[in-house]
Design a protein that fits this description.
The longest helix is centred in the N-terminal third of the chain and has 24 residues. Strands 1-7-6 form a three-stranded mixed beta sheet. The chain has a two-stranded antiparallel ribbon with strand order 2-5. Helix 6 crosses helix 7 and helix 6 packs across helix 8. The protein has a domain of about 140 residues: Cytochrome c-like domain (Cytochrome Bc1 Complex, Chain D, domain 2). It is built from 14 helices and seven strands. The chain has about 350 residues and is mostly helical. Pfam families: Cytochrom_C. It comes from Bradyrhizobium niftali.
Length: about 350
């Protein structure tokens, strides 16, 4: 499984510890079983990915989704136990334990001065079925490579995408816990709650939190809780045909710091190639036609500037595989049908390098 259950998980004495280790703080029994089923599905896929290639290795299969774009926790993964230490991040007076940081119904707000007051649905969700939006997407919406940044999305777009998660029009080419949790929440959130969350996130001024670096060699990485992180020792390896996106500070990101920043390593020449593709005379790949001249979005399509290139690659791949349907898929399908992996890497490297 994606996160191993303690051997005595069902025992009364250690039940609380088992829930903590599995990341189920605050969930009732029915919800624990649903999330467990989600994670078992992802774990089965993890076994197949492990047999193909490590997410941190340059070799990869050309026959399926690239593991670096769809990080899945290995079967042996287990979260560190909470030792009671109060976690801190720079420029914040707040402090949280690991248990608090893992509570799906309490979004840690490290920097309340950065945003308006959090709506209840963003801050706490609604037990037992609707997780706090600010837990996964962070308090003011930057998210991480494992999910979407909500920066720059209109309220209408956020609402529409949530509905598409609910109706099954938006899925992934690979089973993913982050998507499964979003689907679960989308089915139980009320229209009013969704409107409040969408209006809140749409009110936040976008900012860039990614540095795109062209390179031939990258830090060796491993999957750590659904994202790539450098292994200890500082070893490097060829980048190959990959994007390697890692937090500048892993512990700050794990603490759900909304100011956490990332480095996205891309192959040399990717940004220029992506710029040329995006502005090419080929009408099938003219991004500005729908996303606007500055790629910051229009009434037709969302902004794509300064977004996580790993996330953006998954969207292109999912449109191409048919996993993502719904609004604008008819417009995107002819575009992605003609894009290979190198083209997708170049395009998202370019868009990630832009100003939001």
């Amino acid at each position: 499984m994606e996160e191993r259950l303690p051997a005595d998980f069902c025992g009364t004495a250690s039940r609380a510890a088992g829930l903590h280790a599995f990341g189920f703080e605050g969930l009732g029994p029915p919800m624990r079983m649903e999330v467990l089923a989600m994670r078992m599905s992802s774990a089965l896929f993890a076994l197949s990915l492990t047999s193909l290639a490590s997410a941190g290795a340059p070799a990869q299969s050309q026959d399926g989704p690239p593991p670096w774009a769809y990080p899945v926790n290995p079967p042996s993964f287990q979260r560190a136990p909470d030792d009671g230490t109060i976690r801190r991040v720079p420029d914040s007076a707040a402090g949280f334990t690991l248990t608090q940081l893992r509570d799906l119904f309490a979004a840690p707000d490290w920097h309340p001065e950065d945003h308006p007051a959090l709506p209840e649905i963003v801050a706490k969700g609604r037990k037992p079925d609707v997780f706090a939006c600010g837990v996964c997407h962070r308090a003011d919406g930057p998210g991480g490579p494992e999910n979407a940044s909500l920066f720059g999305f209109s309220a209408e777009y956020i609402i529409r995408q949530t509905v598409e998660f609910k109706t099954g029009l938006r899925t992934n080419s690979v089973p993913r816990v982050a998507t499964d949790l979003m689907i679960k929440t989308s089915k139980d959130i009320t229209d009013q709650e969704l409107k409040e969350a969408a209006n809140y996130f749409a009110s936040i001024k976008p900012r860039s939190n990614i540095a795109v670096v062209e390179t031939d060699a990258v830090p060796k990485t491993h999957v750590r809780d659904l994202f790539l992180a450098p292994i200890d020792g500082g070893e490097k390896e060829p980048i190959g045909q990959r994007i390697i996106e890692i937090p500048e500070n892993v512990e700050h990101f794990l603490s759900r710091d909304s100011r956490a920043r990332f480095i996205a390593y891309v192959p040399v020449g990717s940004i220029q190639k992506g710029r040329a593709l995006a502005a090419s005379g080929d009408l099938r790949v003219q991004c500005a036609a729908c996303h606007g001249a500055d790629l910051k979005g229009t009434a037709v399509a969302p902004g794509i500037a300064a977004r996580s290139p790993t996330y953006m690659f998954r969207q292109l791949y999912d449109f191409k595989s048919g996993a993502r349907k719904g609004s604008n898929s008819d417009l995107m399908k002819p575009v992605v049908e003609h894009l290979g992996t190198d083209d997708m890497i170049a395009l998202v490297a370019y868009t990630a390098s832009l100003i939001p």
